[in-house]
Specification:
Layout lengths: L12 H34 L4 H36 L13 H32 L2 H7 L1 H12 L8 H5 L4 H10 L1 H9 L16 H4 L13 E8 L7 E8 L3 E2 L6 E2 L9 E6 L10 E6 L2 E6 L13 E2 L16 H10 L10 H10 L5 H15 L9 H18 L47 E8 L31 H4 L30
Antiparallel strand pairs: 1-2, 2-9, 3-4, 5-6, 5-8, 6-7
């Protein structure tokens, strides 16, 4: 049976089957190839790019061609089987280049094979790079990975490709990742994946192959000035500005000593710890290994040493655990918006109301958009004169933008799902170890002093927050007139965790009068 041979006119259904399979295969190959060429040309020359059209080009097109070729092969095998059953002679193929039809068929096959090989080479090259693009990771698996993809675009590493951290360079890493991803592919196809996506990612590459491609442990980082803006929950959204110096450090080139925050991950010393939970929020056991000596710091709640094989060496990701996919709590988002004047701080109680609105539970993003506008209109009715209709729309629109970048109810993702270990305002973070509870054999504690990692240069509140900054180090002073109620024995997140900031349980710690001031005034703040 040749490629274009037709069945005899009086052939039975069994004898016609291989020819029908062959023609069906030819049709599928032709349609798949032409569709792939069309979409590839549109992408290359017209500039039309869509994750699903790209998926068709690089996934469905080769799959269709493979199915078509498979049907053609099955057709040839069935035909040979029929000849064997019928005991018909199987003629040998005749290569006669004097036959014009044969000659034309050979030339057509050569030209077709050449075109197919060229297009396949281009498609394979582009498919490889497409499979390593952020669009492939974030848009093709849109339902699962949309939160991480959107968070990446809003993070400090938005220009990095997903594969830089999650796969690595080279064909070997590519193949290993795709083989490892078969389980995830099955989960997506069968809808058996866990929501929200569980962290920390167990298959994440070592930080020396990720972070240290741009950053290096050996470099000493000078102290950095940082400015933090906080706004009170009072009527006037009173601003507070904190100018501080962050002691980043490392190995000092002057003294050769370990200094600052980055000493934790230096090569001259090793910090090992044992997390009691999967998310590494509870760390009762810490070892510091340096110069052949090991010092153990242990929380009193731990009655026996943990298994040595479960100890983890501290690296970049133990503090910077969300460097590329941040989900920020409401208070932080509103403070930033007020500091950038995206929200009008002259609107009474805007900080308090905005945080409350962003903290509400919404079942879907569509519901969130509608309810946020309703909440703004309810808290600032037009008859109060505190907002105009345009201000209501603008404020609700901005709050929805803040919500949509950090909350994905369909995927059960929010700032609550992913604690941040860097800092200590909203989650334990540094206080997982620096809590004045971890003690060594000599009774020495891991310090929890405010000036261990940073020094405050200036703290100003109200109109003074916008004044000139004198560079003078001074001790920490709690804002909002509540210094008398600031308890140094409590951790910051015990009062400032997002779910506690507005809690009645913290009423006695908020300042004079205890509870938040009642919202009774309706006139615009001066």
């Amino acid at each position: 049976m040749t490629l274009l041979e037709q069945p005899p006119p009086n052939a039975s259904a069994r004898d016609r089957l291989p020819f029908e399979l062959r023609w069906l295969g030819i049709l599928i190959v032709a349609i798949s190839f032409l569709l792939g060429c069309l979409l590839l040309a549109m992408e290359a020359f017209v500039g039309i790019q869509n994750p699903y059209s790209t998926l068709i080009v690089y996934t469905f097109t080769p799959t269709g061609i493979s199915i078509g070729v498979g049907l053609m092969v099955v057709g040839f095998l069935v035909h040979r089987h029929n000849l064997k059953i019928n005991r018909a002679p199987r003629p040998l193929p005749v290569f006669d280049f004097n036959d014009r039809a044969f000659r034309s068929a050979v030339f057509a096959i050569i030209i077709g094979a050449t075109v197919f090989a060229a297009v396949s080479a281009v498609a394979t090259y582009r498919a490889y790079h497409w499979a390593e693009s952020n669009e492939f990771c974030g848009k093709v698996c849109h339902k699962v990975m949309r939160p991480e993809y959107e968070a990446l675009k809003n993070g400090a590493h938005s220009r990095l490709a997903c594969v830089t951290c999650h796969i690595g360079p080279g064909v070997d890493s590519f193949v290993a990742a795709k083989v490892n991803g078969l389980n995830q592919l099955y989960g997506v196809l069968s809808s058996t994946y866990h929501l929200p996506i569980e962290t920390p990612v167990k298959q994440l590459r070592d930080p020396k192959y990720i972070c240290e491609q741009c950053h290096t442990r050996a470099r000493f980082e000078d102290s950095l000035q940082k400015v933090l803006w906080r706004f009170s929950y009072d009527r006037h959204n009173t601003p507070s500005r904190f100018d501080l110096i962050m002691k980043v450090g490392g190995v000092s080139p002057v003294t050769g000593e370990l200094e600052g925050i980055h000493w934790h991950a230096q090569t001259r010393s090793e910090v090992w710890y044992w997390p009691r939970d999967e998310r590494r929020l509870d760390i009762p056991y810490v070892e510091v290994r340096r110069d052949g000596k090991t010092t153990v710091y242990q929380d009193p709640s731990l009655t026996q040493a943990p298994p040595k094989e479960q100890l983890r060496r501290m690296d970049c990701l133990d503090c910077h655990n969300r460097p590329a996919h941040p989900f920020r709590p409401p208070a932080m988002l509103v403070d930033q918006a007020l500091a950038e004047e995206a929200l009008d701080r002259k609107v009474p109680y805007l900080k308090r109301n905005a945080v409350e609105i962003l903290s509400l539970e919404y079942k879907t993003t569509v519901e969130a958009k509608a309810r946020i506008l309703e909440e703004v209109a309810k808290r600032y009715p037009l008859e109060s004169g505190q907002m105009t209709p345009d201000q209501q729309q603008t404020t609700a629109g901005l709050l929805f933008q803040l919500y949509a970048k950090n909350n994905f109810p369909e995927q059960k993702v929010s700032w609550r799902a992913y604690p941040v270990h860097m800092g200590h305002r909203s989650f334990p973070g540094c206080a997982r170890c620096h809590d004045d509870r971890h003690k060594n054999a000599e009774g020495e504690l891991i310090p929890r002093d405010c000036d261990t990692c940073h020094e405050f240069l200036r703290q100003s509140h109200g109109s003074d927050a916008y004044g000139v900054v004198p560079f003078v180090s001074r001790p920490f002073e709690h804002p909002a007139g509540s210094a008398a109620r600031f308890d140094k024995d409590r951790l910051c997140n015990e009062c400032h965790a997002p779910e506690l900031e507005l809690s009645p349980a913290n009423a006695e710690r908020r300042g004079p009068g205890g509870s938040l001031p009642a919202i009774t005034e309706t006139s615009t703040a001066p």
